[in-house]
Design brief:
Elements: H1 7-24, H2 27-33, H3 38-47, H4 50-61, H5 64-96, H6 99-106, H7 109-119, H8 127-144, H9 152-178, H10 184-205, H11 215-239, H12 245-251, H13 254-267, H14 273-292
C-alpha cells in the first residue's frame, strides 16, 4: 500500500511522540513520593484515568466501541496485559534503584522491538537505523553505568528494569498493530480497563497499602493519572499510527533522558559528566534512527 503520509503529519507525530515521552517521564517521580504501594500506584494511575478515557472514546466512537472490542478483543487484551505487567514490575524497580536506572533499563525496549520486527515480521531495518539504535543504547549505558555497584537492592531493581523492557516492547508492538485499525481513544479506554482489572488484585495479594493517607496523596495519584496516562500514553498511542514501531520505540528513549533531568532537578539525584554525555548520545541516536526509519513515498 502506498505511504500517503505528509511531511506535516510526520512532524506532528514526532512532536506528539516526544511530548508523550516527556509526560510519562514524570511517572517515576510520582511513584517515588506516592503514599500507596508500587502496584497500587499503577492501579490508581489507570483507574483514575478511566472516566476521561471512556468519555473521550464514547464521544468520538459511539456504538462502534463494542464492534471494536469484538473485532480486536485479543489484541486489546494483549495491550492491557503487557502494559499491566510493565507497570507492575517497573513500579517495584523504581523503589529498589534510582529513577535514572529503572527508567533507562525499562526503555531498552527498542532492542526487543527491533528483534521481533526483524526476525518475526521480516521487516529488515536500515543500517542507519541500527547505527542510531546502537548510539541510543550506548547512551543509556553511559547514563546508568556509574550506579550498577550500589548493592543487591539496586541490582534487583536493575534486573526488574530489564523485565519491564520486555513487557514494554510487547505493549508497543501491540499498540502499533492496533492503531492500524482502532482509534487512539478506543485503544486507551479498553487497554486501560484491562490494566485496572489486572493490577488491583495483584496489589491486594501483595499486601500493599491501597489507599493514600492524605489529600496530598490523592493529588499525587490524580497527577500521575492525568499526566502520564491520559496525556502521555494517549499522545504516544496517536503517534504510533503515523510512525514505524521500531522508530517509535527508539524515539521513546527521550523519556529516560527527561526522567534523569527531572530527578536531578527535583529529587537531587546525582548527574555527572558521563550522564550528560550519555543523554547527548541518546538524542543523537534518536536523530539517526529517525533518518534510517524513513519509508519511501509513492
Amino acid at each position: 500500500m502506498a505511504d500517503t503520509r505528509t511531511a506535516p503529519q510526520d512532524w506532528l507525530a514526532l512532536a506528539a511522540l516526544f511530548a508523550g515521552a516527556t509526560a510519562i517521564a514524570s511517572a517515576p517521580l510520582f511513584v517515588k513520593v506516592s503514599e500507596t504501594g508500587p502496584v497500587a500506584t499503577a492501579f490508581w494511575r489507570v483507574f483514575l484515568a478511566l472516566p476521561l478515557l471512556w468519555v473521550w472514546a464514547a464521544s468520538t466512537q459511539g456504538l462502534k466501541l463494542m464492534a471494536q472490542v469484538r473485532d480486536h478483543r485479543l489484541m486489546l487484551f494483549a495491550a492491557g496485559f503487557f502494559f499491566a505487567g510493565d507497570l507492575a514490575v517497573w513500579h517495584w524497580s523504581i523503589l529498589l534503584t534510582s529513577v535514572a536506572n529503572t527508567t533507562l533499563l525499562a526503555n531498552l525496549a527498542p532492542i526487543f522491538v527491533t528483534a521481533v520486527t526483524w526476525f518475526v515480521f521480516r521487516e529488515t531495518p536500515q543500517r542507519l537505523f541500527l547505527a542510531g539504535l546502537a548510539a541510543a543504547i550506548s547512551g543509556t549505558l553511559l547514563l546508568i553505568g556509574a550506579s550498577f555497584g550500589q548493592g543487591g537492592g539496586a541490582l534487583l531493581g536493575d534486573a526488574l528494569g530489564v523485565v519491564t523492557a520486555m513487557f514494554y516492547a510487547a505493549y508497543q508492538l501491540s499498540v502499533s498493530r492496533l492503531r492500524a485499525n482502532v482509534p487512539t481513544a478506543s485503544v486507551m479506554a479498553w487497554s486501560s480497563t484491562v490494566m485496572a482489572v489486572l493490577l488491583l488484585p495483584i496489589a491486594w495479594v501483595s499486601g500493599e497499602r491501597i489507599l493514600p493517607l492524605t489529600d496530598a496523596g490523592w493529588l499525587k495519584l490524580i497527577g500521575i493519572a492525568l499526566i502520564a496516562q491520559v496525556i502521555g500514553q494517549s499522545l504516544i498511542a496517536w503517534a504510533m499510527a503515523h510512525l514505524t514501531a521500531t522508530f517509535s520505540s527508539v524515539g521513546l528513549l527521550l523519556q529516560p533522558v527527561m526522567a534523569t533531568l527531572f530527578a536531578w532537578i527535583l529529587l537531587g539525584e546525582v548527574v555527572g559528566p558521563l550522564q550528560f554525555a550519555g543523554g547527548a548520545l541518546v538524542l543523537t541516536g534518536i536523530m539517526l534512527a529517525r533518518q534510517g526509519s524513513s519509508r519511501p513515498r509513492h
